[in-house]
C-alpha cells in the first residue's frame, strides 16, 4: 500500500524463505483476545482460507482467547458449530461463537415485552429455531409466501395476527408480500423492529458474483416503514458492543479484531477502541482501504493488514 498521512500500517510478516522469522512475527501474538469474522476471513463458503486453521490452533496453544464474531444468522449455534468442526477448526467450541442470534436472545431476555405476542420473521430457519428453542416464542413468516399476481391479491393478505416484533434476517424467499407485511406490522409503534445485520453483500468463492445480503432486505422494509429504524444485533451495532462488554473482559490494549469488511468488522473494532486488522481474502479490497484513508474515514481505517499465508 502507498504511504499516507496516518501512521497505522504495520504489515504482519513471518518466515520468508531466505530470512527466517522476522521481528514482526511477535506482533501477531502480542494480544490476549482475538476476535475474528468468519466468511471471507477464516473461510469462504465451505473452504477454509489457507493458513487460517493453523493460525487459530497456534493462538489457542499459546493460551489466547479466540472468538468468532459473525454476522451470519442462518444457522443456530449448534449448526454453526457443526460447520466450524467440519471445516477443520477442531479446537473451537460453542463458547467461542458469537452471532446475531446469540445477541438477539440476550436482548429479548432483557426485554420480555417483545415476546408477549407472536414474532413475524423474515429470515432463515436458523433465526426461527433460535427464537423458538431459546425463548419459547411463537414465530411465523419464514419460508415461501406465494401470492397471486393480480389486482385482487391484497384481499388475501392476512394482517390481523397480533405481533409484538418483526425480526429480519437473510431470506432467499424474500418477496413483495413479505415486505408489505413487515411494513404494516411496524405501523404499530409498540411492535419492535429488529435485524440480524446490515451487510449488503457477502463473500463467495467466485469473486465475480454479487450476492445480496440482509442489508438489502432491511433497506426495503425501512423505506416502507419510515420513520421506523431497526435495532441491529450484528457488527457494528451498539447491541453487539454491549453484549461483548457485558460478557467478556475485553482489555482494549490487548484485544484485536480481524475482518474483511471495513464497514462492519473494522468499524466495530474501532468502535470498541481496539486494534483492527483488515484481511485481504474477503469483500473489501486494497483499493477500498486506500479510498477510506484518502477520505479520512477514521472509523473505517484498520491498524494492520494481514494474510494467513504470510505465516504458513
From TrEMBL:
Isomerase recorded as keyword: no
Keyword annotations: Hydrolase, Magnesium, Metal-binding
Active site: 37 (nucleophile), 39 (proton donor)
SUPFAM superfamilies (alphabetical): HAD-like
Record keyword Hydrolase present: yes
GO molecular function: metal ion binding; phosphatase activity
Gene Ontology terms: cellular component: cytoplasm
Residues binding substrate, per UniProt: 235
Positions bound to Mg(2+): 37, 39, 260
Cofactor: how bound: Divalent metal ions. Mg(2+) is the most effective.
Cofactor(s) recorded in Swiss-Prot or TrEMBL: Mg(2+)
Protein name listed in UniProt: Hydrolase
